[in-house]
Amino acid sequence: MGQITVEKNLEGIEGLCLITPAVHGDSRGYFMETYSQRDMAEAGLDITFVQDNQSMSTKGVLRGLHFQKQYPQTKLVRVIRGEVFDVAVDIRPGSKTFGKWHGEILSEENKKQFLVPRGFAHGFLVLSDVVEFCYKCDDFYHPNDEGGLAWNDLDIGIVWPKLQGAYPGSASAEGYSVDGIPLKLSDKDQKWQGIENMFGDH
To answer: Which of 168, 165, 186, 185 is CA-nearest to residue 176?
Structure first.
């Protein structure tokens, strides 16, 4: 399969994949292919990515849980500096694993990539002092199309590593911390509702 190994359907959630690239290192450093359409296709992942994004965040930042409402995206995410706990939640109507989540540690050391298909909410918590986070998308960004779920929704029950705090009854970051650093969320991410409110027909 070339330069990657792929673990499919993580924890029985169809479509979620963990991709580990082959890293070629010696005394000078290392080299790896960060993306190969051929290797992905050979692994049964025939996806056309059209946009690359990159963000920087500091320890205690939590981004998510986000999804696109009318223009869903498949995302291939990785970390090039630091470490995050990256999470995907199945929100596909009719899915056998609707509401189930899976998380992966992504870091500059392990160089793993997390494939999050369309129909998932996605987010991550920064565990290192600084993180640089990169991801490919198979559709372009569409303004005003973003939806979200409360990052601490009890019905989903994500276990965020290193996080301390008690559930306040909302998505507020108040009272939470990571290694003693206050949790940091955008104003918008503190207003999302839980999965039962947003998808009450499931």
So the answer is: 165
- Could you check whether the bond before residue 65 is cis, i.e. omega within 30 degrees of 0? yes
- Amino acid making up residue 22: A
Q: Give the catalytic positions in this structure.
A: 66, 135
- Both tokens of 63, joined, read 């981004």
Main-chain phi, psi angles of 40, to 5 degrees? -65, -45
DSSP alpha helix (H) spans, the chain: 37-42, 195-198
Q: What is the β-pairing status of strands 62-68 and 101-107?
A: unpaired
Reported as a single tens digit per residue, the pLDDT across 23-63 is 999 999 999 999 999 999 999 999 999 999 999 999 999 99
pTM over 0.70: yes
What tokens were used for 145?
A: 């199309």
Number of helices (H) and strands (E) in the chain: give both, helices first: 2, 16
Q: What percent of the chain has pLDDT over 70?
A: 97
Contact between 65 and 149 (Cβ < 8 Å): yes
* Rounded-to-integer distance, Cα 62 and Cα 36, Å: 29
